[in-house]
TrEMBL record:
PANTHER family: MONOCOPPER OXIDASE-LIKE PROTEIN SKU5 (PTHR11709:SF311), MULTI-COPPER OXIDASE (PTHR11709). One of its GO terms (cellular component) is plasma membrane. The keyword Glycoprotein applies. Residues 1-30 form the signal peptide. It comes from the Eukaryota. This is Monocopper oxidase-like protein.
């Protein structure tokens, strides 16, 4: 096979749940990894003693781990055994020059029931902790998610000693209703009363000690070693605080960025966010609680909304004891914001490339765009809708990227009709697509006037997280920005009654989705698309459509 202009030899490896073809490189910088996924509704893998169908992949919940290295090429052949169309999106994978593989409604045609389609994407110039999930039809509420690890190449030094082992911890809120019932409830005017989570799961398992849990998550460790935990909040509604009884966590990475290494007793992980922490097993041989509790929610130790797992020392002869470790006040927004501000970019570490992360920074950039975006709950034609600047995104049958390719968007969407820095007087539907200047610096200000947490995610890029604030944002707020060492992430939280500001370098041509990561907000229209266009037809600038391109609309 030809990769990057070179021919490479092929070796094959078969596993029980996935079919992998590893193309070891002679003069190539990439390995090709092949997965075959069969996606279906499955009651056998439901996490609780409740009759509930779960979206499983190869009869697994969570789905198979995608474990790759910088620049690898990932092929995922998805067989859709559901009764409705299906997408998968690869949260945090930037799909360099290739938004065709992004797996959202604006870029792809869905995989129809009883059909299959193969995603092919490269983890180009990335390392870090990510995850995947279905992106339409409210399917994420029924699972279908799994972990993605992008490891450093051997030639790149990692800024911490190699751990004894790595663990993936996918935690998130969970509702016991069938996801189609939850989806239908989104048409009710009192939308905030529906699809309310009932449990917190860890790796698809219920809380330890809960009568409804079929099993609980446990990680076996050896005393005196260090372990990397790759943590993602894969939930749909609730920010979580994570802590491990009697153990400190050393923060080292978030969503592809190495961070300054700070010790933490607990870590806030908001919807859609991922982190890596190092845990050193320096306590006596015993079992210890791992706890994930929701932010901005009242709970107690026996609540179903407290996720509980176990850190099990291999020579332990006794189970967990004592009360659950206490965390910060869940309503203490200032604690959470201060913790977020303390997470800075490690300027001296290399990541996907040998040069230090800090060689690319925002200390002296010229902004080409400012987008000021307010998410809100509105009513349109008697139905509840979430909106951005009073425009609720209306999903059409023709993917925007497809229309862009064939008819330059004509008759499908109107470019830049969306109010990018103001709020329309009245709420309405719209097909929101804005221009992003190729290789320009964009400033995004996310505003949240509601009394609940919000998170925003941008496909295709990383955000430089330059600032948080209370109240309204004004141009003078830029004086408070951190332009020295802001961490780079793809998902950022916006605190109630506050704002969050980020910078992004728009060097990745394509049609890119910007959305609330809170599931019901995303489903009900709190999203838009950014069209980053480079007129040069050279495929080195942007990839042409894949050979297996699906047509629809």
């Amino acid at each position: 096979m030809r990769i990057n202009g070179y021919y490479c030899r092929v070796f094959m490896l078969f596993t029980y749940t996935t079919f992998l073809v590893l193309e070891f490189v002679t003069r190539c910088s990439a390995i090709e990894v092949y997965h075959e996924w069969h996606v279906s509704l499955d009651t056998n893998v439901s996490p609780l003693n409740v009759n509930q169908s779960v979206i499983a992949i190869n009869e697994m919940f969570p789905g198979p781990l995608i474990n790759v290295t910088t620049n690898d090429v990932v092929n995922v052949n998805v067989f859709n055994n559901l009764d409705e169309p299906l997408f998968f999106t690869w949260h945090g994978i930037q799909q360099r020059l290739n938004s065709w593989q992004d797996g959202v409604s604006g870029t792809n045609c869905p995989i129809l029931p009883h059909h299959n389609w193969t995603y092919v994407f490269q983890t180009k110039d990335q390392i870090g902790t990510f995850f995947y999930y279905p992106s339409i039809q409210f399917q994420k509420a029924a699972a279908g998610f799994g972990a993605i690890r992008v490891n450093n190449r051997d030639v790149i030094a990692v800024p911490f000693p190699k751990p004894e082992a790595e663990f993936d911890l996918l935690m998130g809120d969970w509702s016991t209703e069938d996801y189609k019932i939850s989806k239908s409830m989104m048409r009710n005017k009192d939308v905030n009363s529906y699809a309310v989570p009932k449990f917190i799961l860890m790796n698809g398992k219920g809380p330890y000690g809960n009568n409804l849990s079929k099993s609980f998550e446990s990680f076996t460790v050896t005393q005196g070693k260090s372990y990397r935990f790759r943590i993602s909040n894969v939930g749909n509604a609730l920010s979580l605080n994570l802590r491990i009884q009697n153990h400190e966590m050393l923060l080292v990475e978030t969503e592809g960025s190495y961070t300054n290494q700070i010790p933490l007793d607990s870590l806030d992980v908001h919807i859609g966010q991922s982190y890596s922490v190092i845990v050193t097993t320096n306590q006596s041989e015993a079992d210890y609680y791992i706890v994930a509790s929701p932010k901005l929610t009242n709970t107690n130790d026996s609540s179903n909304l407290v996720g509980v797992g176990v850190l099990h020392y291999s020579n332990s002869t006794k189970g967990v004891t004592g009360p659950l470790p206490t965390g910060p006040d869940p309503f203490d927004v200032e604690f959470s914001r201060n913790q977020a501000k303390s997470i800075r970019w490690n300027l001296t570490a290399g990541a996907a490339r040998p040069n230090p992360q800090g060689t690319f920074n925002v200390s002296n950039v010229t902004l080409s765009h400012t987008f000021i975006l307010l998410g809100s709950l509105e009513e349109i034609s008697g139905l509840p809708r979430y909106a951005v600047n009073n425009v609720s995104y209306y999903t059409i049958g023709t993917p925007l990227k497809l229309a862009d390719h064939f008819v330059n968007g004509s008759g499908v969407y109107q470019l830049d009709a969306f109010p990018h820095d103001s709020v329309n007087a009245n709420a309405s539907y719209g097909i929101s697509v804005v221009s992003g200047k190729h290789k320009g610096w964009a400033e995004f200000v996310f505003k949240n006037k509601m009394n609940v947490m919000d998170t925003w995610h941008l496909d295709g890029f990383g955000f430089f997280l330059v600032g948080f604030g209370d109240g309204d944002w004004t141009p003078a707020s830029r004086d408070t920005y951190n332009l020295v060492d802001p961490v780079v992430k793809s998902t950022v939280q916006v605190y109630p009654g506050g704002w969050t500001a980020v910078y992004a370098f728009l060097d990745n041509p394509g049609m890119w989705n910007l959305r609330s990561q809170i599931l019901k907000r995303w489903y009900l229209g709190q999203e838009l698309y950014i069209r980053v266009f480079d007129a040069d037809p050279d495929p080195a600038k942007e990839r042409p459509p894949p050979e297996n391109l699906l047509l629809c609309g």
